[in-house]
Design brief:
By secondary structure, the chain is α+β, with helices and mostly antiparallel strands. The chain has 2 domains: 9-24 and 236-420, Alpha-beta prism (UDP-n-acetylglucosamine1-carboxyvinyl-transferase, Chain), CATH 3.65.10.10; 27-233, UDP-n-acetylglucosamine1-carboxyvinyl-transferase, Chain. The protein is built from 15 helices and 23 strands. The strands form 6 sheets. The protein has a 4-stranded mixed β-sheet with strand order 21-22-1-23. The chain has a 4-stranded mixed β-sheet with strand order 2-14-16-15. Helix 7 (169-179) links the parallel strand 9 and strand 10. Helix 2 (27-36) runs parallel beside helix 3, helix 2 runs parallel beside helix 8 (195-206) and helix 11 (312-319) runs parallel beside helix 13. It is elongated. The structure holds uridine-diphosphate-2(N-acetylglucosaminyl) butyric acid. Uridine-diphosphate-2(N-acetylglucosaminyl) butyric acid binds next to helix 2, helix 6, helix 7 and helix 13. Residues 28, 31, 98-99, 122, 126-132, 166, 168-171, 192, 239, 309-310, 332-333, 375-376, 403 line the site of uridine-diphosphate-2(N-acetylglucosaminyl) butyric acid.
Amino acid sequence: MSGTAQREMIIRGGAALHGTVRISGGKNAALPAIAAALLTTEDVILHNVPRIEDVNVMMDVIRALGGIAEWAGPGTLRVNAADVNSVVAPSDLVVRNRASFLVMGPLLGRFHEAACCPPGGDVIGQRPLDVHLAGFRALGATLARMDEKYHATADRLIGSQIFLDYPSNMGTENLLLAAVLAEGFTVIRNAAAEPEITCLAALLNAMGAKVTGAGSHTVTIRGSQALHGAEFTIMPDRIEAGTFAVAAALTDGDVLLENVAPDHLDALIWKLGEAGACVETGPETIRVRGNGKLGPLSVQALPYPGYATDLQAPLATLLTQATGHSVLYERVYDNRLLYVSELRKMGAEIVVAGQTAIISGPTALVGTHVRSLDLRCAAALVLAGLVASGTTVVAEIWHLERGYERFAEKLQAIGGDVHYSGG
Ligand code: EPU
């Protein structure tokens, strides 16, 4: 095991968080934006890109295909795909995250050929690719499975009416990325409506594409013959913002989040208020203050604008400190409650029945050794450490580094007693 894989995060609980946190650019918006650069021979300059491991992997995929992906300044990435000379994404990189499968759409759009193995990513339930593949077929591609890879080829990509069986985020993104270079009109119905889709459509339009309806469940694309370069700023990370908002309420602190889009977090803001926290929003800020006590919640994780599944585990940590019984119903993934076993090691009283977690509180959490099982599990455990007595050691913290930029540093700046093992 490498040194990075062995790194642990050590948290001493007890401090309320106070201060200001600047939220980074969105992971799940930056990753498709990097893939979008494959659609043109010109430079795509992306600002507000988080320096996280998933972005590093995506940059490596672009380079492996023959393109350039380099940091041009703090948070600014230059991607140039003029010299792309391969349509086969290397499997050793693709298995390292989920988003690498997003190169399929733009490669198919521009070169009429793409190959990629099933991607990696968090183990949180079934994560099929049928929506992506059915959409590529609807655009005129032929799909074959050779060795471990999906191979898509098309003589021509032709705009089409596509109905998604499920409003998959990446499925919608992959089809957008292919359809912008297809002939004629494509209409994607039952499209995902997440803000990351709107962000990708705005980038594509800045590159010369004609996409309308993003952010609704019907997205229309008028295909273009070619796209050009663009300079674009990635939206704020709504899940990072939500994680810090939960941390503020959990520790009974007072935290101002800057560089956020409050309307992307309506469901969380509503629920934090219902639990008893004080939440104030400005045009690009959210302030969260505890008021000394937390009440229980009933929450369903749903596609946007419902409560975000990626904020389900952090909320569970909060609810261990709420007085009464809370219900968390995970409706996006079929296995995203695995983190419960780790929270239980710290004393949490949580019962799981199917996709529902019933949390009884408040419970005095106790610091101990726990293990990150996925990205958001890692965040939930670090948050638990902030209110636990004694010392919490979170192993396999590399999961966290896939998706949160400088998480420990940001927590330290607002009073969190966290550091890495050996650091
Ligand atoms: N699904 C299908 N068929 C498909 C694809 C998905 O049925 O072809 C189902 C899945 O089984 C799952 C549901 O759709 O039950 C949601 O999956 P979706 O495809 O929307 O997720 P994704 O696009 O693979 C993105 C984020 C996830 C986030 C989900 C849901 C990226 C890179 N990842 O994944 O982020 O949980 O949308 O909002 O954009 C995270 O950041 O921690 C994370 C897991």
